[in-house]
Design goal:
Helix content is 84%, strand content 0%. By secondary structure, it is an all-alpha fold. The protein has one domain. Residues 8-58 form the YrhK domain. The chain crosses the membrane at residues 12-32, 38-60.
């Protein structure tokens, strides 16, 4: 699982973007009373996609920092030493 998270950051971005689009479509569907039920489900699905994308991105960032050090760490070491 860690390899997948580390090697495919674009997947997390894609899941988040698709979640945002679904969330937006759900928002628009709330305009009409007849589409309220669909809007509710799209809200739920879109929110889940946004959450999964954000959690995946957080794991990716954590793994990258764990393996490579925090951003700017190498530059600070060069300045000190």
């Amino acid at each position: 699982m860690k390899v997948f998270i580390r090697e495919f950051p674009a997947v997390h971005l894609a899941i988040g973007v698709i979640g945002n689009v679904i969330f937006f479509v759900g928002s628009v569907l709330f305009i009409w009373h007849a589409t309220e039920d669909v809007a509710i489900w799209l809200f739920i699905i879109g929110s889940a996609g946004m959450m999964l994308g954000a959690v995946g991105q957080a794991f990716y960032t954590y793994e990258r920092h764990r393996l490579n050090g925090a951003p700017g760490e190498a530059a600070e070491a060069r300045l000190r030493g």
